[in-house]
Amino acid sequence: MEEKNKKTEEEIYEEIQCIIKKCTGVFINNTEANLLEDTWGIPTVDWLYVIREIEKRFRINLPEIIAEESFEFFTIKNIAKKIL
How many angstroms separate the CA atoms of 7 and 82, rounded? Predict the structure, then answer.
């Protein structure tokens, strides 16, 4: 039986997008784009704040998940899948 309070993948996308916007000032609407691409103009250090906020919000160990994956993992969509 599915929990009533369980968030949809789309809701998680939106929350991650809000966290990124709050921490970096940049809104990323492409959920499949690699977040570490230079095109966003986001300093690498800002991603530490993003990761920390995602960890707090979703209670996951994101650094451990990232360490187990390749750099291509770092997309909104892939992070959301790990949260689900």
Answer: 13
